[in-house]
Amino acid sequence: MATLIELLSREPADALWTALAAAALLLLTLITMRVLRAAAVRKVSHRTILGLVIRRTEAPVQAVVSLAVMHMVCQAAPQRLWLIGSLRHVTLVLLIGAITWLLLRVVRVTRESVAELNPVDTADNLLARSRITQVRVLTRTLNVVILCVGLALALMTFPSVRQIGASLLASAGIAGLAVGLAARPVIGNLLAGLQIALSQPIRIDDVLVIEGEWGRVEEITGTYVVVAIWDQRRLVVPLQYFIEKPFQNWTRQTSELLGSVMLWVDYRMPVEPVRAELKRLCSADPDWDGRVANVQVTETSATAMQLRILVSSADSGRNWDLRCRVREGLIGFIAREHPACLPQLRAELVGAHAATAPPPP
């Protein structure tokens, strides 16, 4: 107890002046930052990119500046102050954490700014989706790197951790090999994510046919891709899949698409009326983009011929609806105008007497 009282009473003037200096500097720093923020808010609208940056980084910037001031005061304080070494260590660790927080927030603001400047709810959004995909993948990778570096720097401030690291340095080769083998899927997905961000075989909102399913790319994370299937299911696919296996991307260069409708009709069906009816149906349909509307005989069988109807649309969703309406309209047209030309099965009925009669000479 006497030792504790002696430690608490040692150099009280130095401790008091250090505390007052820290409080004064911290108060001055907070007031200055408040004034600067108020001036910036008056000059910048909240709806602009700069306004977004100010709003998102206000808290981490205040934390970094305040902790930096506290750490400088602790560094300038006399060495003989009680617990000054521990206080310096604590402020340093907190400063590293605040800087990590600020960097993560800057990465997030960058991603939000790119999304704000490149809206995907437009007709020609290929470039916007390309940029958003790159930023999402790269920012997730950068977040992992920032967290790992910040944690490593914070741990390295502890002497015991540095000693453990030095003692394990000799066996780092074997340990690194073991960890590399164990983390091979994670590392593979990380590298696949970087490759997807750079080469972009897929992008956000791309239309894919993968594993026999049709859907849109809804999310790209650091390890997997979420594909929203047309019936509201979600297909979760590892990133490496898109590097190692083939898949269909219907919006790689453009969202425009050709679709086909197959109809079987009798040989007596004239093709020109079908072409005219197709033109009429497409001209009245808002999902037709005016590029292609064609009818061709592509196959024949012993009983009927096959008509292939090609129609074009601005995207796959509209093309699907257009094909369904064209199919319905042409079937109704043939049944109404040429009912005898629907597919028929021809057979010749032979009577019993004719069947038993000898063949003619």
Structural class: alpha+beta
Total E-strand runs: 8
Beta strand %: 5-15%
- Poorly predicted runs are 1-9, 168-175
Coarse morphology:
elongated
What is the count of helical runs? 12
Rounded to the nearest angstrom, the distance between the terminal CA atoms is 136 Å
Please give the order of strands in the largest beta sheet. Answer: 4-3-2-1-5
User: How many domains is the backbone divided into?
Assistant: 3
Helix proportion range = 55-70%
Rg, alpha carbons: 36 Å
Mean pLDDT across all residues, rounded? 77
Quaternary: single chain
Order of helices and strands: HHHHHHHHEEEEHEEHEEHH
Largest sheet: 5 strands, antiparallel
Short overview:
By secondary structure, the chain is of the alpha+beta class. It has three domains: 2-117, no CATH class; 141-252, SH3 type barrels; 257-341, 2-Layer Sandwich (Alpha-Beta Plaits). It has helices at residues 2-8, 12-43, 49-76, 84-117, 126-156, 159-168, 172-182, 184-199, 241-244, 271-283, 316-337, 352-356; strands at residues 207-210, 213-220, 224-229, 234-238, 248-249, 257-265, 293-300, 305-313.
List the helices and strands and how they pair.
Elements: H1 2-8, H2 12-43, H3 49-76, H4 84-117, H5 126-156, H6 159-168, H7 172-182, H8 184-199, E1 207-210, E2 213-220, E3 224-229, E4 234-238, H9 241-244, E5 248-249, E6 257-265, H10 271-283, E7 293-300, E8 305-313, H11 316-337, H12 352-356
Antiparallel strand pairs: 1-2, 1-5, 2-3, 3-4, 6-8, 7-8
Helix pairs in contact: 2-3, 3-4, 4-5, 5-8, 10-11
